[in-house]
Amino acid sequence: MTFESSPGQPPQAPAPLSPQEFKATAEGILTNVEWVIEGKSHTIKLAIAVMLAEGHLLLEDVPGVGKTQLAKALARSVDCSVRRIQFTPDLLPSDVTGVSIFDPEKRDFVFKPGAIFGNLILGDEINRASPKTQAALLECMEERQVTVDGNTYKLRSPFMVIATQNPVEMEGTYPLPEAQRDRFAARLAIGYPDINAELALLDRREEYNPLDALRPVADAEMIVRMIAAARAVHLAPELKRYVVDLVAATRQNAQVRLGASPRATLQLLRCTQVLAAMDGRDFALPDDVQQLAVPVLAHRLIPTTETTMGGGDTKAIVSDILRHVPVVSHPGRY
Amino acid sequence: MSGQRHATMVAAATLALTLTPLIGIFEGVGWIVPVLFTIAVIATAASLTRAAGRGQGLQTLAMCAGLLIVLTAGFSGGTAILFVIPTPDTFSHFGLLAGEGVAGIVREAPPVPAEGGILFLTLFGIGLVAILHDMFVVGLRTPALAGLTLLTMYLVPVSVAPDATAWFWFILPAVSYLWLLADDNLRRVSAFGHRFTGAGQLVSQRFPSPMARTARWSALGFILVTLLSLTVVPTNTSGFIDRIAEGYQGGGDAGLGDVNPWAQLSGSLNQPEPVDVLRVSTTDPDPRYLRMHVLDELTSDGFAPNDYDDREALVLDDAQGETFTAEIENLRMEAPVLPVYGTPVELAIDGNWERDSATDVIVGNSSDMGDVESYTLTYTDSAPDAEELAAADGMDPDDERWAANTEHPDVPELTGIVDQALGEATTVHEKVIAVKDFLSVANGFRYTLETADAGNDEAILDFLETRQGYCQQYAAAMAWMLREADVAARVIIGMSRGTRDGQEWVLTSRDYHAWVEVYYHGVGWVTYDPTPTSGVPGAVSFPWATEPSPEDDATPDPGESANPSTDPSEAPSTDTADPSPGAEAPTDGPTGQAADNGAGGGPAFNPAWLLLLLLAALPFAPATWRILLRRSRLGPARLSAKTAWDEVLDLALDYGVGLSDSLTPRQAAGVLAQAAPGAREAATALGSAMARHRYSPRGADPTGLADAVHDLRSELDQRAARGRRVQARFWPASLLVKLSAKQAEESARLARRSARAADRVRTAVRRPRRSNSRKDRAVTRRP
Description:
The structure holds two protein chains of two kinds.
Chain A: H1 19-36, H2 41-52, E1 57-60, H3 67-77, E2 78-79, E3 82-86, H4 93-97, E4 98-103, E5 108-113, E6 120-124, H5 131-143, E7 145-148, E8 151-154, E9 160-165, H6 178-183, E10 186-188, H7 195-205, H8 210-213, E11 218-219, H9 220-231, H10 237-252, E12 256-258, H11 262-278, H12 286-297, E13 302-303, H13 305-309, H14 314-324
Chain B: H1 3-18, E1 26-27, H2 32-51, H3 56-75, H4 88-107, E2 112-113, H5 116-139, H6 143-160, H7 171-190, E3 195-196, E4 202-203, H8 212-232, H9 240-247, H10 261-269, E5 276-282, E6 290-295, E7 297-299, E8 302-304, E9 311-313, E10 323-330, E11 340-341, E12 343-348, E13 353-356, E14 362-364, E15 374-380, H11 386-391, H12 402-406, H13 412-422, H14 428-438, E16 446-447, H15 459-466, E17 468-469, H16 471-484, E18 489-495, E19 499-501, E20 504-508, E21 512-520, E22 524-528, H17 549-553, H18 563-566, H19 591-599, H20 607-617, H21 621-634, H22 641-654, H23 665-675, H24 680-695, H25 705-719, H26 722-730, H27 733-764, H28 773-780
Parallel strand pairs in B: 1-2, 16-17
Antiparallel strand pairs in B: 3-4, 5-10, 5-20, 6-11, 6-18, 7-8, 9-13, 10-15, 12-15, 13-14, 18-21, 19-20, 21-22
Helix pairs in contact in B: 1-2, 1-5, 1-7, 2-3, 2-5, 3-5, 4-5, 5-6, 6-7, 9-10, 22-24, 22-25, 23-24, 24-25
């Protein structure tokens, strides 16, 4: 019994994207999403960067600021298969991964793919699901495959999970364990819109929901090409050293109980590449790294109890590290 | 005591300790009081300005003012208002004093009395050094640089009087330098807060650090090693300074007031412009040399000045042979002895003059040539016959003068050289001719006012090895070599005959000369001049300085053997067998001297001026360094985005634009653009060029970056406050940072190394570490 979940091999080596094409397409997606979420272009840019770095995105913010809107807009801008999972306490792992059902006609078990078999998965209120359901996401997110009844099924490419969670209302929720948080490439908060943006939002939404009017500007094949193009962005040795220094600094920081993992280093570099490509460059700059450091690193750090009690948070810690780690390290000194 | 006051005191104390080597070059210790007072005034001025919270510029000004007031109070010569406020007259008086001091330095041998111009120059020089010293140690906190100032203090006596400065004088300057460094480092360490021992115990500020003992022992070890290597390694102290110092050798007690004849000789020859010294009109158609000093005491330092102890009343011998009369007009000679031709028989002169019986030198008894305007001298000047000399014996060893005129230090190397030079020579005259030939131009000897050092213990060996020198070396070498060959010989210092000016002879400072007298039994002292005539403008050839033997058998040569018997005084000028091939008749041709000046390095310049020049140039050194650095970075050959960016970072430092290490090039450019809005484009271009250079695989195009840097610099310069602008030009912060960064790097490396060494030692003696840091690490799992 086999099930081909993915549409086969990635498309045959398409022509490499030029930095300008990359930039144009990325800006297309950006404009599209901005149509729905006003005044948050930086956050949207980072979200797109995470997507093109094949990372998973965790949107954590208070209710009603547009987490789901952003996820949906992003999904609609790309013409690919989109699945949405509303996480609830009674959601079962098999709902996510899929289940084998006995087919009386064939007298055999047949695999019914779960919600995870899509290009873009929107996981709403992920912290409302039970830990075992959350754990079901683990293998999917990192290894991009599902194992049910001993059979392994590959997921589609591109594959990206955009999960949202509410940090305020903690009653009856199961906070994501460390291991799972580390699997998200970045955590973004959207924040309240400023007054002008909110006014514009009101005007826009008087007649219809802009989300309905969105048309895709890229397809799955284009996304695969963009992902490949971003991976080719040049990373200078000094830049790699800088990223390593930053991550090392999180591990040595006295306010942090657990620093960022090597996976964090990798994902930070990949997101950096995308951000550089979105800027039309074929080489990455420390400026790109600095834009990404807080979203990519902050959610992985576990602050010490003293820090938490003192009202410090990990975003501030990462910002502080950014202010102190030299961009070019001096290996000979000290 | 506040930190800066303590540091100021340490700086002043170290400088004072470094003064000890100067004891050797001054008479007495009275000079110490004004010098210490000057240092104290400068230190107080600096400390008070600092206490008032003023910057380095004002501190330096205050110190300069302190120095000026001290100098005015001490040396104004009544030209100052209220004793301490200088007037323009004061400064011209200072100029006079400085000139007098420089003249004194050139003329006099150490130890010199510390008074007048010399004391003024001393206080001025030490004052400048004290200002720099305080600036380095306290103001700029770069005590390592203060080593330079301490070195200057040590260098002066070493270069002026190498003999008067013994090796142990080196200890105090070295110790004071270490004190300076240690004190500064202690301040630096204390600035961090409490100090801990290696075992984690708190120690008080006064308590020595755990490494103090190691440091003390290693400091002691370093000083010992330096001193040992000083005694073992052959030193090379010859140089332009040494040439003047050479004249002072053995000059601990000149016995003649303050003028050492050697010093006067070399000082006069090295004067940049010759001055007329004597004007002579004589009945002698062909006068020889004017004899002044006789040097017959030979020590390992060379021929020492004579004390003329055997003085007696001036009684002159009766005339034997033809007599001449010379009228000598003194233009500017100052000497305790009287220059005379040949054997004086009559003398008409003012003052009280005596005769030294051992040397026949006419010495003033509280009279000096400086007081004599002119005198008349009647003299005979007999010329011995070469044949007569060839037949004569040397001085009888039983003669009472034998010991004084043949004793010499034992130099084995020289004995070999003399044996070789003498060859077959047996009689006194043969020996004399052999030595003279050995020193001839034909044998590779060259006349030059520059002497070279070949690293031998004895100066004579240097001369014989390098084969270059002037009359002093030639005369001393010939006399010494003759003494080595058991021939009584001594050195004479006087004047050559100068140049003819109508009926008169003019003797200039360039005509000071040294030659040799050799004693022949029955004939007396006979003059020889080993110096190549090319170097002596008024050189006279002596007819008897030849081998007579061939002429005995052969037909008489038209030259010497016929003439001397008939008219000894006429012959020598033209026909001689001078060994030097290039010998012209230099009777009235200063051209020879001029040519020689060109070849021989020209007039020597005074080391004191050089020192002053260096001191004056010192404040401009950082600015020059900075400009050269900028040129080299922005020069087309080296220009890249990296060099341009380095320059930008240094400019930011110079003009006080804070750029943190954690800024990316673009962000740094943004900060610079805020500081220099007019150069926003330049800054942005530089920043993105650097970003490309560092992060792009294709690098950056450096075109136009040099202009961008210049734009940025002029904009920063325009926007900076005036103090900042001056500081950026003359004392750029970027240089200081570089220096201190290097220093920090070095000390960190040293600390690591010593820590490793200590670990190794501990492992070797198998003593467990008391530190529990490893356990800690295991618990926390964090480094």
